[in-house]
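Action item from last week, closing it out:
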Amino acid sequence: MSIFTGVCYGPLFGFLISWCGDILGNCLVRIVIDKSKISTKTRENRVYRYLLRQRYPILVLATAFAVPIIPNLITNYASLRLKISKSYYLAAVALGTLPITFLYAYSGHAISALKFKQLIPLVIIFLLLCCLYLVIKLGVKRVRKYRHRRKN
């Protein structure tokens, strides 16, 4: 949807519209999840269990919102189970959805305007975000490995 708003409203307004929509949409999903029952299939999800085990849940939730392949339903449900306050949840959603919404809105505008040179910085930003995700993931593994060695 962010790509479409970038095409229709330009990069800046398309980004702002999509970002606000992402924040409000995730808040609405969290409210619906809180009022309904979630199936056991969702609770058995590997990503969901991973989110619940983290030491810094707000950082992990923000990262999960930034990664498009992680379903927001699972991330929102994990935020409820972690009993994250509404203000911290809102911060995690705002920070997590910001980079990917930015990339989608600006790339949608660049593609529609046939300005392929504008896509180069966006691809670089996207690759940097992927590297950041990998660094965080590897850092978490190292910390776990270190703690496991310390216990033994």
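Closing note: The chain has eight helices and no strands.
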